[in-house]
Amino acid sequence: MNAPAKPLAGLKVIELGTLIAGPFASRLCAEFGAEVIKIESPDGGDPLRKWRKLYEGTSLWWFVQARNKKSLTLNLKHPEGQEILKKLLAEADILIENFRPGVLEKLGLGWEVLHALNPKLVMVRLSGFGQTGPYKDQPGFGAVGESMGGLRYITGFEDRPPVRTGISIGDSIAALWGVIGALMALRHREVNGGLGQVVDVALYEAVFAMMESMVPEFDVFGFIRERTGNIMPGITPSSIHTAADGRHVQIGANGDAIFKRFMLGIGREDLANDPTLASNDGRDARRDELYGVIDRWVGSLPLDEVLAVLNRAEVPASRIFSAEDMFADPQFLAREMFLSAKLPDGKPFKMPGIVPKLSDTPGSTEWIGPELGEHNGEVLAGLGYSVEQVAALKADGAI
User: Fold this and answer.
1) What is the CA radius of gyration of the chain?
2) d(CA 293, CA 300)
3) Where is 296: in which H helix or E strand?
4) If residue 16 lies in a helix (H) or strand (E), which one and from where to where?
5) For the range 56-62, what are the long-range contacts, defined as Cβ-Cβ under 8 Å and sequence gap of 24 or more?
6) Region 156-183 average pLDDT
7) Which of 20, 88, 343, 395 gives the lowest tally of CB atoms within 10 Å of its CB?
8) Predicted pLDDT of residue 233
9) How far apart are CA 332 and CA 338, in angstroms?
10) Could you give the CA distance from residue 184 to residue 32 in angstroms, rounded to a whole number?
11) Reduced to 3 states, what is the DSSP secondary structure of residue 239?
């Protein structure tokens, strides 16, 4: 029995992106069946090919970020390179780009031109500050978006400067919004008989949209949320604690019934039955006292014993996982969160599994990130170019 088609099968996505936000968005499309053609500069391609840990000169991150994509090299400053891109976009469903606003317009490839070329095209534009406004022409990486969007201000401890998360979370959040916007635009196009449209995602807005109750709290109360370390202000208890063996655990016992089970589990019946601690507002008023109790209890036991007590009491908790922990964890393994693949020289390696899990039409990895220009012949042949024409384009510097 043949497997059902992936949910995005039949869609053609053209990626004009580098590094993180644009390429992550198109990666999600590729994992679920879209044909993704990644346009790269003939002069080295996406800089991500050389970021972080390299294996025989190529980033391991690249092999994941570009999986299932086809690499086509085009010189977009060359008339023939632009002509090839237009031919691709004339039959594409989605264009994903993360240039600084105005770059495509200077190349003669702005929205008005592309919309006239293909009225059904959905154009996802990912940039630091969006396509409008006084900051639109400024460069803006994910770190800038995280800073302006409010995330960096509240991350860290109150007596120290703001810190970053350990990954480029702002870029990744923007990519997710980009894909969501693209799918909504496709829904409008296909169900409501609409035309293609622009999905304009600013990195700072993508982060800002995740900032929970920050806006109304400031507007109504003049309250500015500050850095509070590992605790969740106003939600108690929820924090990270250190066990006797030096390992760390996140405990989220902020539900009313959960808190009571937690206190009973650690032998603090007095706190479990204290009516002033029966709801979150009462617990938050005694936050320092409660965290002191929990710190002392966790610090008196090795982590495995701490987790055993918490599991018996049905308290949400987890040790702080490293990559090494993940590789040995039965939940990660049961959910197939490590996929086996092979590097270009045949060496086996693991890459992250597919998220989300679809029951009937799951995503998959068909191939790892390709070599630069690996699919030039295939893609150009699909546009009607002969082998001789492709060779001439290469000799002329168009591809």
Assistant:
1) 25
2) 11
3) helix 287-299
4) strand 12-16
5) 56/343, 56/344, 56/345, 58/344, 58/369, 60/349, 62/369
6) 96
7) 395
8) 81
9) 7
10) 16
11) strand
Under 8 Å CB-to-CB from 217, ≥6 apart: which residues? 223, 225
The mean per-residue pLDDT over the stretch 301-310 comes to 98
C-alpha dihedral, 141 to 143 to 144 to 149, nearest 10°: 120
Condensed to tens digits (0 to 9), the pLDDT of residues 362-381 reads 999 999 999 999 999 999 99
pLDDT (0 to 100) of residue 114:
98
Count H helices, E strands: the chain? 18, 13
The alpha carbon of residue 152 and the mean position of all alpha carbons in its chain are separated, in whole angstroms, by 17
Q: Could you list the active site residues?
A: 171
Question: For residues 208 and 149, is the Cβ–Cβ distance under 8 A?
Answer: yes
For CA atoms 20, 15, 109, 9, give the dihedral sign: negative
Q: What is the residue whose two structure tokens read 């024409």?
A: 389
How far is it, in rounded angstroms, from Cα 277 to Cα 291? Answer: 13
171 in Cβ contact with 203 (< 8 Å): yes
Amino acid letter, residue 34: A
What residue type is assigned to position 210 of the chain?
M
Only one residue has tokens 């600084």, namely 100
What are 292's two structure tokens?
Answer: 């002191």
Question: Which pLDDT value is given to residue 257?
Answer: 97
pTM score, whole prediction: 0.93
pLDDT band at 1, cuts 50/70/90?
Answer: low
> Among the residues of 222-255, which ranges form H helices?
none
> The tokens of 139 are what?
């460069």
Two tokens, residue 135: 């900051």
Q: Is residue 248 exposed (0-12), middle (13-18) or buried (19+ Cβ within 10 Å)?
A: middle
